[in-house]
Amino acid sequence: MRFHDSSYVEWKNDSLLAVPDNTWWKREVFDISNEVCFANVQFRFKIKKGNTTGTHFSSGWFIDDFIIQASVHPIVPPELSFITTYPDTVFETGPFPFIAKIKSRTLAPLNIPVLKYTSTYNQIVTHDSIVMTAVEGDSIWSATIPQHVYGTEIQYSVFAEDTMGNNDFRQGHFHIKRLPPYVLNSVALHKMDAPDTVEKYNTLMPVLVTIKNKGLNNLQSANIQWSVNGITQTSVNWSGNLPDGFQDQVVIGSYLSGMHGTYDEIWVWVKLPNGVSDSILNDDTLKLKIYNCKELFDGDYIIGQNPLSDFATINLALQSLKNADCIRGDIRFQLASGTYTENIDLTNFANYLNGYSLTLTSLANHKDSVVLNDTAGTLITINNTNNIYINSLTLDVAQRGTYAIEFKGSANNIEIRDCNIYANPTAVTEAYAGIMKSENVNGIANNVRIIHNVFDGGF
Question: In sequence order, what are the residues at sequence separation of 6 or more whose Cβ sits closer than 8 angstroms to the Cβ of residue 73?
Fold first, then answer.
């Protein structure tokens, strides 16, 4: 096995002053099964000096953490990479969200990954770990390191392992450094958290803001003032104990949104940090303009016959979605357990979703709990349809229908996962199938994923 400097582009081989940092470290993995499985083997690292002019006084090789793994099962570490990365030095106190792609490369499922970190401040070392959360399918995971004061050193690692013991990890570190100006007392209006830029009309809306201490002294008090459409509201006297760079979310009140089709304008400003004047004035004020919608869609909705459901049928929910004048985020229709006899037409939903996604799934998160069948013909039609997720459902066209899902035109980013898909069990032609896209249909079906489904019947 050979290493070579040409594969390490981060190595500054032409600099005498370069100091290695964490971007230099590389993790090499080699499968040496054929070489060692029937022999006694010793390992030796031999470092050979090159002859490139100017490199003889540069930082050389550093070798650490030499690990040998052996098993009677296949040794295939999980796929693990950071989507979120941080440089060696950061200039904020956090929080620090981490997103990683972690995926088993064997048939064995993943154990829940863990983010571990160590914080060092004034030579006091604290260890902690955070169980990561799946945020997108089963391969994108997230966790957040909380705020830490300026001057803290953070070392972190993500460890992933499947149930067969195959594992891998990634690590890194960063230092939290303060930038000028250095003033004793200052407070900033960091962001406006609520309302959003679109809201439902004639509704009582809470107003939430985040303030941030920008002074060297701990922030113990501040005054927050605000107005709605030019009318001053009751101010809030905040009290607490925020270290330099830390932030706090504050509910400052609520207001009644205007009629649909109109706009509301909110101004918020903060002053008097620790009871004194703020010498930094360019970060004290924010404004927000809000459009008042007649019908707003965003988040989760329950479909079913129980009193807590938002809609009785799938088609009632889809019709309401098509009529909505504001789509604010991804939408998930969760179907209560039972049988739904409806033909579902998602034609032209690319025009309605405004770039967001629509998920059809079972409330119980189990494919046997919800059965969708059709009155006749195609159960689910996809045509000019993007960003659709169909998960954990039973799609049954074995008795009356032709296709469980039919692509009749263009489609992009369609996922069908963890479903039972039943079609005509005696079919002898392509007129009956679980999923169908005819060669005669115009439009490209792009990025279509059909994952971990059970098919029975169909041609």
Answer: 164, 165, 166
d(CA 387, CA 412): 6
Does this model's pTM top 0.85? My answer is no
| pLDDT (tens digit per residue) in 111-161 | 999 999 999 999 999 999 999 999 876 789 999 999 999 999 999 999 999
Distances (CA, A) of 39 to 33, 36, 52, 68, 187: 10, 5, 37, 15, 68
Give residue-wise pLDDT tens across range 155-213.
999 999 999 888 999 999 999 999 999 999 999 999 999 999 999 999 999 999 999 99
Domains annotated for the chain, with CATH where assigned, are 1-68 (no CATH), 78-179 (2.60.40.10), 187-293 (2.60.40.10), 296-456 (2.160.20.10)
Degrees (nearest 5) of the Cα angle 26, 29, 30?
140
Helix-, strand-, coil-residue percentages of the chain, each rounded to 5: 5, 45, 50
Whole-angstrom distance, CA of residue 351 vs CA of residue 380: 18
Pick from 364, 378, 362, 354: nearest CA to 314: 362
Q: Which of 317, 383, 379 is nearest to 348 (CA)?
A: 383
What's the token pair of residue 222?
A: 């501040």
